[in-house]
Write a structure and sequence with these properties.
About 35% of the residues lie in helices and about 25% in strands. The protein has helices at about 15-25, 45-50, 80-95, 105-115, 130-145, 165-180, 185, 240-250, 260-265; strands at about 5-10, 30-35, 60, 75, 95-100, 120-125, 150-155, 190, 205-210, 215-225, 225-235, 260. The protein is elongated.
């Protein structure tokens, strides 16, 4: 089979540059385009140079339409509004769309789901292989332990992150809620301040830390009577997310249109 032709959206950002580097290091993949916001001062710059690889002849552009016939997939770590637009393009072309963007509103989620009727969409709050295994473990532990064990999720990221709780923290919260058979939206507690009263049994709490250059740390705590279980993942390099996203792209190439997750990619659905 020929190399999978990929376009990186958000190519000038930290994740975009990591993706370009990871594609260059991967067999079976070829970079054919690099996209950025129309307001970006990086437009026209060489994608390889920005990624620290030397010139590769691919310039950052704002318009994805000219690339539609040249690509097999888009790998996208951008912003919700941009991702929704790329999803529509992927649906039009019937290609793969790997989404690592977070912070979607319900209306955005609906548009992505609609696009997945024609595109092969892999969407995850975190593309790390380790984090997705952690999610499966969280679901299993939550299912095993009853409400005597309170669930708290603590996450920390760098000081430039704009959404909170992180998409990964919410993904882990959904895994815990699925294990318990409850609705996360009805049982999550994302802020505590002042005289809050006692913790309600069955709630899933979130605590958010921001500072420095932390790539991402997540700790899921099951606190029971006289004992505590903690499941932890610490990311030290954005390349783990890039490699996971590329693994998802290669897996998606042979799939039917639909909305998939990293649990599908890794065979963790029935874990």
């Amino acid at each position: 089979m020929s190399d999978m032709r990929l376009v990186v959206a958000g190519a000038g950002g930290r994740m975009g540059r990591a993706l370009i580097q990871a594609i260059a290091e991967s067999k079976g993949l070829k970079l054919v385009g690099a996209l950025e916001d129309a307001r970006s001062p990086l437009l026209g710059r060489d994608a390889g140079t920005l990624a620290g690889l030397g010139e590769n002849g691919i310039k950052l552009a704002a318009d994805a339409a000219p690339l539609l016939g040249k690509m097999d997939g888009i790998v996208d770590f951008t912003a919700p509004s941009a991702t929704v637009a790329y999803a529509a393009l992927a649906a039009k072309a019937g290609i793969v769309h790997v989404i690592g963007t977070t912070g979607f509103a319900p209306a955005d989620e609906d548009k992505i789901a609609a696009a997945a009727k024609s595109a092969i969409v892999v969407k995850s709050g975190n593309m790390s292989l380790g984090v997705n295994l952690l999610g499966a473990l969280v679901k299993r532990v939550a299912k095993t332990l009853d409400e005597e064990f309170d669930i708290e999720i603590v996450e920390m990221h760098h000081n430039k992150k704009v959404d909170a709780p992180s998409g990964t923290a919410l993904m882990l919260g959904r895994a815990a809620a699925e294990g318990r058979g409850i609705d996360l939206d009805k049982r999550k507690v994302v802020a505590r301040d002042g005289h809050t009263g006692a913790r309600k049994p069955g709630d899933i709490g979130f605590a958010v830390l921001r500072g420095g250059s932390v790539v991402g740390e997540h700790n899921v705590i099951f606190a029971g009577p006289a004992e505590r279980i903690e499941l932890v993942h610490k990311a030290g390099d954005r390349m783990i997310f890039a490699r996971g996203a590329l693994k998802a792209a290669l897996w998606a190439r042979g799939q039917k249109p639909g909305l998939y997750s990293m649990a599908d990619v890794l065979g963790l659905k029935d874990f």
